[in-house]
Amino acid sequence: MESFHPLYELFFQHKANLPDIQFMASGKKLPLFAEKEHSSSSPMTLHQVTDLNKTLIGLISRNIHLMYIPDRIAHGNVCFATENEHLQEAYRLYFDYQDLLHYAYAFIHTVAGQQLNVMYLTNQYILVDLPKSEQQFWYFQKMGKSLRLLHTLSNIDIDMASIHFGSDDSGIKKLTCQESENGWRLYIDKNTNFCYYPKRSVEFHYFGYNPVQTQIENRKGHDLTKDEMIMIVKIITSVEKTIDLIRLMDSLNGPIANKNP
Fold first, then answer.
1. Is 224 exposed, middle or buried, given 0-12, 13-18 or 19+ CB atoms closer than 10 A?
2. How confident is the model over 13-68, as pLDDT tens digits?
3. What is the pLDDT of the chain when averaged over all its residues?
4. Domain range holding 41?
5. Do residues 36 and 137 share a domain?
6. What 3-state class would DSSP assign to 81?
7. Separation in Å, CA 135 to CA 104, 114, 139, 142, 215
8. I want to staple 32 with a disulfide (CB 3.0 to 4.6 A). Which of 21, 51, 114, 202 is the partner?
9. Which of 135, 155, 175 is the last residue of a domain?
């Protein structure tokens, strides 16, 4: 399934329209990517997108006490600590481009990250706080990975028994919704409520985008297949889990920001 998230593909698909990611360091903005001529009509290669700002990379490396490996797979024989991608982060001696993207992706979901980027739609660049410690960096990197999976809907497990498909064997339904005390209920006919979503997922906005409402409004009153019903439930579940991760990041970021193991 395609991602429903507005910035996911910009971050992880290595396309020419990658966002301009800038890190805040002592009040100054340092771009993640070094300027490099490339055709806007063709996708960037992995080596192009990993052509990073050496000044910024050096600063991050000093902050988190890790060396930067731009492409560890292409380097041939390297030590176990830099070669094994399954090695626990606490024992890794390096960080790479994907780690940086996961860190940044997690940060912009936090309240601080969204406040820092309130003008993103106008400025067309993303601001990220410089990681303050190794522990904070790996924490956000791990959260970024979790968010990435959520936003591709690839690890969303749902209880199929909780989805009421109705008795019509045609598999086609008309989607309507009705507000309840604590959220909304989705109906596929007058008597069949196929799922419920709470107010917090209705109200969840991200850079001006509301995932749940957008998906439902696009389908309201239209024919709805069983696959589309399942996708809507997965999106609602993904948003709920995203909200939980954001709250967890906001609650733990402060205590770990200035700690180094």
1. buried
2. 655 556 688 999 888 889 888 765 444 445 444 445 557 889 999 999 999 999 99
3. 75
4. 8-155
5. yes
6. helix
7. 15, 22, 6, 11, 37
8. 21
9. 155
Does residue 250 form part of some domain? Answer: no
Instruction: Give me 254's structure tokens.
Output: 């402060």
Q: How many domains does the chain have?
A: 2
Q: Which two tokens stand for residue 173?
A: 């339904």
How confident is the model over 87-141, as pLDDT tens digits?
566 567 899 988 999 999 999 999 888 888 877 666 678 899 999 999 999 999 9
* Contact predicate 234/163, CB 8 Å: no
Position of tokens 């700002």?
53
CB 40 within 8 A of CB 47: no
Asked if residue 113 is part of any domain, the answer here is yes
Cα separations in angstroms, 37 against 100, 158, 234, 250: 22, 45, 40, 38
Q: How far apart are the first and last CA of the chain?
A: 39
Cβ-contact 204, 237 below 8 angstroms:
no
**One domain for residues 29 and 144:** yes
Is the domain of 139 the same as that of 171? no
Instruction: Indicate if 128 and 168 belong to the same structural domain.
Output: no
Residue 45 lies in a domain: yes
Dihedral, CA of residue 128, residue 134, residue 137 and residue 143, to nearest 10: -160
Q: Where are the alpha helices (DSSP H) in the chain?
A: 8-12, 46-49, 54-64, 80-83, 97-107, 111-116, 120-123, 134-151, 199-203, 211-219, 226-257
Sign of CA dihedral 101, 68, 32, 52: negative
Closest CA to 96 of 108, 106, 83: 83
